[in-house]
Specification:
The protein has about 425 residues and is of the alpha/beta class. It has 18 helices and 13 strands. The chain has two domains: about 190 residues, CDP-glycerol glycerophosphotransferase, N-terminal domain (Rossmann fold, 3-Layer(aba) Sandwich), CATH 3.40.50; about 190 residues, Rossmann fold. The protein starts with a strand and ends in a 15-residue tail after the last helix.
Length: about 425
């Protein structure tokens, strides 16, 4: 019986790997093991995501082997017992030394989000790459992950595995579970991930001292105290909107459309101390999602039960909305708000999946503040033809079978090479 190993460095990895684990557990011809680690030290920004034997998803407890590992040596030994390894990254992204030490299994790198195309995620090291669609393979070649010949030989287009759980629930079931009215429209808001953390890797001083501050007097004071240049003073005195005004515009839209405003919490790493929301967000929300599950993923379930999703930044949640067939709006921040790296990503997002009216819409923040309260839910209706086109490009088939297609491809690979008899050739950085 072929053995499948799933290294899980963070609980968030269950979002992508969980549906594959689920599909493998439904097939008695596979042996499944979850390998938890390597844990990051307490106090690290992401230490709250350390996987443990206690926080394994309830759907998996008692159904498969699970072990904790604490060193690279333990991780390598555990993975070498498997016939195939499933991860959302290449081996050296789990731990650099694994490229040399993990020799027996076929390494399967599974698309997680846009970042999967980047060289830092090392898909080039895996024997099998599983992409949601052809778009991401082409993008990986474009950004220099590896040559097209190298990637073509190991790439499979199987769909967006994170969307498989959509088949396990319904809009009505999620609303019933969360006690949300069935007969009123619901607008789901996914907050800007930078608003509270103010991470300078993503945002600028303009964002910090203008967008996050509503009072012009306070903006001017901050310009004089912290920024100390004429440009800062001009920006402080201009009529630019603010985050608080944007939330009030969102609330006004919901009121005029008789909709409930449901608020998703930020990820803990994006909090400010113990706060996951701004005061304006708490004031505006009718309902705050308290569930926080990686598998089945809470964000996907929240999107599934909504009539419209609005997100305060360029987010991968758009892929979940496309899969669920729910209209999705991105509020576009101005150039002045984003760091250079973030702006380059936002520009690509905006001209690609971010603005495909009939499925997704991009509304600049200033326009959102000025005009959105007067809009109607009917202005953001799904066009089935557009949705099909955009889905095909960015998420692939949405049929709940992506994980099964992936496993069948792996089975064919293992049967062809003789599982565990002929160790797969490792693909190292220097091969590229």
């Amino acid at each position: 019986m072929p053995k499948l190993a799933f290294p899980l460095a963070r609980t968030s990895f269950y979002r992508t790997l969980g549906p594959i684990v689920e599909a493998a557990l439904e097939d008695s011809s596979w042996e499944v093991e979850l390998i938890l680690g390597l844990p990051v030290p307490a106090g690290d920004l992401k230490s709250y995501q350390n996987p443990t034997l206690d926080n394994v998803p309830a759907r998996f407890k008692g159904r498969c082997k699970t072990r904790m590992v604490f060193t690279t040596e333990e991780m390598a030994a555990a993975l070498n017992e498997a016939d195939a390894v499933f991860a959302n990254v290449g081996p050296s992204c789990v731990a650099y030394e694994l490229s040399d030490r993990v020799r027996n299994p076929v390494w399967c790198a599974v698309f997680d989000a846009d970042h999967s195309v980047l060289p830092a995620h090392h898909f080039d090291e895996a024997e099998m790459n599983f992409w949601a669609s052809r778009y991401y393979l082409d993008w990986a070649v474009e950004v220099g992950l590896a040559s097209r010949e190298h990637l073509e030989a190991r790439s499979y287009e199987i769909g967006y595995v994170r969307a498989d759980p959509l088949k396990w629930s319904t809009r009505e079931a999620v609303r019933r579970e969360w006690r949300i009215d069935q007969d009123r429209p619901v607008v789901l808001y996914i907050p800007d991930g930078y608003r509270l953390s103010l991470n300078s890797a993503f945002i600028t001083d303009w964002y910090r001292y203008v967008w996050c501050v509503e009072s012009r007097a306070e903006r001017l004071l901050r310009a004089l105290l912290f920024r100390r240049n004429r440009q800062a003073v001009r920006e402080a005195l201009n009529g630019a909107g603010s985050d608080a005004e944007m939330i009030r515009a969102l609330r006004a839209f919901c009121d005029s459309n008789g909709a409930r405003l449901v608020m998703m919490p930020r990820r803990q790493k994006e909090w400010s101390g113990s706060s996951a929301f701004t005061a304006e967000e708490l004031k505006a929300a009718d309902f705050i999602v308290s569930e926080d599950e990686a598998h089945p993923q809470t964000t996907l379930r929240a999107i599934q039960m909504a009539d419209l999703v609005i997100c305060g930044y360029a987010s991968g949640a758009l892929l979940d909305a496309l899969a669920a067939g729910v209209p999705y709006i991105t509020i576009g921040m101005p150039f002045a708000a984003n760091s250079l790296e973030n702006e380059l990503y936002a520009q690509r997002f905006n001209r690609e999946q971010g603005d495909r009216p009939g499925a997704t819409w991009l509304i600049p923040a200033e326009d959102f503040i000025r005009n959105f309260p007067g809009k109607s839910l009917s202005d953001f209706k799904i066009d089935p033809v557009v949705l099909d086109q955009v889905r095909a490009q960015y998420v692939g088939p949405v049929d709940g079978q992506c994980s099964r297609r992936l496993l069948e491809a792996v089975r064919t690979r293992l049967d062809g090479q003789g599982a565990r008899k002929e160790p797969a050739r490792r693909i190292l950085h220097q091969d590229v």
